[in-house]
Each structure stands twice: as structure tokens, then as C-alpha cells.
Amino acid sequence: MKTFVAAALVLCCSAETSYVMEPPVIRAAAIDVQSRIFNGSTAVWFDLICVICFAMGAYAFQASQAQKSSIVDSGFSAAPAKKLKESTDCESEASSAVQSEPVKVAKRTATASDEDTVGASTKGLTPPWANSSKPKAVAVPDATTKKTRSRSAKPGRGPSEQHRRWNQRIVEATRSEEILEIVEEADSQLNAVNLATAVHRIAKWSKKGPSSSRSNIAWRQLLGLIRVNADSFSAQGFANVFWALGTVHVDCTMEDQLLDSLATGMMRIMDQFNPQALTTVAWGMATMEYNNNTLGQAIKEACFKQLESFNQQDLANAAWALTSLGVSDDALLDRIADISALLIPSFKPQETANLMWAFAVAKRAHKELMDAVVAQVAESPDSLSSQALSNIAWSFAKLGKHDKELCKNIAAGASGRMRWFSPPELSKLLWAFATMEYRDDALMESAVLAAGKLADQFTPQLLSNTVWAMGTLKYSNSAVLDKLARAASTRKDSFAPQAAANLLWGYAVLGHRSNSLFKKFADTITPRLGEFTPTTLVTTVWAFAVAGVPIASLLGAFESRIIVKARQFTVLEKDALIRALKKLDYVKPAILKALSD
């Protein structure tokens, strides 16, 4: 019996010393039992049994802990409930920093004004927030944390204390280079939450991505890890990744494998996306011009189902992004318009401008929505930014809604603030007023003078739009026209056919003599007449005729092109051509015969 008791006491004491979380009570109990047994007490057997059971329980718990440690170390998680909490904590850190994002975004390939020519298509236009503002990347609640995840983490990707430490280091980093050093150090140890946090933080600070060669290698490493983990992100993670990739202007043609992998991963959990996540992903896709029709259609359908819960920013972003991606349809836009028309008084001016831009590009007019926008502008035109003023005016002009009350209020809000208008905003505003045939002398004076100061910064399309608007509204300023002519002459080889035709037409209508401009453009136009449409060809011939600048080599080129395109001219265009050629004293029998057939 004493041998048995000794063995039990050894068990008790060894359990106490090996189980680090156990209190000293076991040692005290063991010593007490030992003294009483060896002193001959027989009333302590129950106490002895209790101590032995407690010790055996301690051993069992210790063995369980050791087993868990070995599992975590090998890359697997044995505690799903804890995994969900850790994932939520890390991901909330990734999203919390997104809420204070600056609101700038780089231009796409061209500005809206760059593409606006008389009768031109709206394809390829930039969002109205180019060079101004964009939707903030918002914290998207992780829907998967409210229930058991349907997708288990990959080996080595499950959240652990180490992943939490990586995430904390990423969040506390103060430079992009510091985050990339963490990526190099941790590499495949990083899980999806760590990767989403890292790419977001880098996008926050480095709008164009890393610059140094070493940082660029680490950046490529990060993108590679995101691609490998593309099926492990939550809805919030996908939203933050797409926001980041759009913000740093990732080239979708160079990163097609990465984006396709993310798209495939998204499709698996599309039902877990809330409005903010959907519109943030759509914004990223549109900003990168990543046209994945399958994903775009899925986002559109998901948006349609949730439209009733969209806030103002969600509505504006969805309309812009889905229209830019070419997946919006009449049913979606009409529903967005129905909801937005009731909420317009609480829309921010930029949200209103973005929303209207989408409807203009989609060529979808909605009376109730447009009436609500007119009322919003009338209430406080001075509160609208230069970009909002120009984009709202441009949108109404594109949709053929020539509202004088709107023009009056926009003119009142813009006239005294022309110094804040960028070249695209200035040119777009003038183009819109000319298209709506609304002339406000105070606005025209301040806008035209501002255009003269910015002439050297105007692109060929902006120069063309500005002169065309001045010609349409019959507003002339010789000093400004001379500045614009000099700027156009230096860029003559970069003018598209329609832009060149509209520029020359504007000078001809205003009666501004600029023979040197016409001669320089004649040299540029002559070898390119094959690119001119029938309407553009008529406009160009008419401009040279009204300006009284006959150029023999150009007239010969006109003749050959007119004969080739004779059957494509309308009756009115044929009449205008004949009158213009008579004015140039260049009426040839071959031309008359071709036009009469």
C-alpha cells in the first residue's frame, strides 16, 4: 500500500510541475496527504483519490495542448471558433485604415472632354471624378464572420497568433518599403487577411506602386501571393484588394492571371457581398479597365437584388462602374434612377455628378432624376465644385436636356470661380453650354479669359472644343483666339480629323483671320483626308471656303475624296459642298457629276 501511495504522490507532484497553468494547490494537497498516511491516518483515502484524479486530468489537458501546438506548427488549425475570431480581428484592422482614404484618382486614357466632339461617340470617356475625387474604399463588414465559413483555409493560410502579429506589423508600418520588407520576410506564411492589409496599405501611400527595383521585386512577390491565395479572401478582402489594385493603376493586360484568379474566387462567394463590397470591386475593375464580362454580369445581378439597401455613394458608384464596364442595362439604370430621384437632396454634389455622367454615357434620360438634379443645383450652386458643375452641365447636354434654369444656376456658380477650373473642366463647360445653346455673357467672358491663360495646357481635343463652343455661341475674343491658334499650331499633327475640322470651323464662323493656322493645318490634313468621314470632310471644306484660304494642293485632295465618297453624302451635305467649292472657285465637272448621281 505504501508503494501505491508513493507512486500516486509522485504522479501528483510531477503533474504540478509539468502543467504550467496549474495553481500550487496540488503540491500542498499532496504533501498533506503524504504526512497523514505515513502517520497512520486511515481517513484520507478519499482525499488521495481526488488528488490523483486531478493530477490525471492535468496530464490529459497538457497532452491536448501539446497536440494542438503540434497541429498549429504544422500549418493546420484545430480551433475553428477561434479561427473565425482571429480572422475577424485581423480583417477589421485591414479595413479600419481604409475609411480615411484620400479622394484622388489618376486619369484614365482620356478625359470626358477629350472625347467630346460634335456628334462624337461617348465610348471611352473617363469617369467624372478623373483628376478630382473617387469613392473612398470603405470598411466592408465580413459577412462570413457571422456564420461558420463555408470555405476552410488552405494549409499554412489559417489565422494564427503569428498571422495576427504579421498583421499588426503591417498596420503599424509607416512606409510602403517597410511593408514590402515584411512581405519578403514572411512570404508564403502570410494569409489572405495579411495580404489584403498589405496591398491596401501600400495603395494608400504609393498611388503608383513601388518605384525602386528592390521594392518592385517585392511588389511582384506580393501580387504573386495574392494570386495563389485568390480563393481564400472574404468579401471584404476582395473589396480591399480590388480597391488597392485600382488605386495603384495596375495594368490589367499585364496582370490578367492575377485578376482572373481573383474573379474566379469572387464568383464562389458572390452571395456574401454587401453593397459596399460590390461597388468597391466594380470601381476597381472599371478603374483598371478590367472587363471580365462574367464577373461584371454577376456583380450587376447582385447589385440589382440589393439596390433597396444602397446608400447614395453606392448608387453613384454602381451606376458609374457598371456603365464604364459596359454591363449596365436599362432595367438596372431605371431602378437606380427611381431610387436616386428620391434621395438626390441628400447626395453629395460629386455623387450627383458621377451618377449623371453614367446616365449620359449610357444615353439613358430619366425625367424625375433630372428634375431632382436641377432642383439640387438651384438650391446651392455655389457649393458645387468646378468638376461637379462641368460634369452636370456636360451630362445634360449629352442627354439633350437643355434646361435654361440649370444653365442659369451653373453659370452663377461658376462665373466667379474660373481660376479653380482645370483645362478639361473649363473646355467641357463651354462645350456643354454651346451644345445647349445657352449664352451667359458673364460666364463666357470669365471662361474665355481663363482659357487664354491655360492655352498651353490644352490638349488638341480641348482646343477644338473650346473654339467650337466660341463659334457656336458667337463669342469672339481676338487675343484669346490668337493664343489658342498658336497652341493648336504646335500640336497640329496630334489632332484627330473631327477635332481639326471643328477647330477650323470655329475660326471661320468667328471671322478670325488666321491664315497661318489654316496653311499649317492644310499641310497636316492633305495626306490624311482618307481618314475623314463625309461630314468631317464637308465641315473642313466649308471652313476653308469661309476663311477664304484656297490652297491648291489641298483642293486637289478634296476633289479626289469628294468623288470617292460622293454616294455617302446627304442631300444637305452635297448642297453645302457645292456652295463651298464655288466660294473657293473650284467647281469641277467631275465633282458635280459625282454629286449629282
What does this structure look like?
The chain is built from 29 helices and no strands. The N terminus is likely disordered. The protein is mostly helical and about 600 residues long. Helix content is about 65%, strand content about 0%. The longest helix has 29 residues.
Q: What distinguishing features does this structure have?
A:
597 residues, mainly alpha, 29 helices, elongated, disordered N terminus
**Count of helical segments?**
29
Number of strands: 0
3D shape = elongated
Query: What is the structural class?
Result: mainly alpha
* % residues in beta strands: under 5%
Helicity range? 55-70%
| Rg (C-alpha, Å) | 35 Å
Distance between the termini: 128 Å
Q: State the major sheet.
A: none
Mean pLDDT: 79
Order of secondary-structure elements? HHHHHHHHHHHHHHHHHHHHHHHHHHHHH
Residue ranges: pLDDT <50 for 5 or more in a row?
Answer: 1-46, 58-158
Task: Offer a quick outline of the entry.
The N terminus is likely disordered.
Summarize the helices and strands and which ones pair or pack:
Blueprint: H1 2-18, H2 25-38, H3 45-73, H4 80-96, H5 112-115, H6 161-172, H7 176-186, H8 192-205, H9 213-228, H10 235-247, H11 256-268, H12 275-288, H13 293-306, H14 312-324, H15 330-343, H16 349-361, H17 367-379, H18 386-398, H19 404-414, H20 423-435, H21 441-453, H22 460-472, H23 478-490, H24 497-510, H25 515-525, H26 534-547, H27 552-564, H28 571-583, H29 589-596
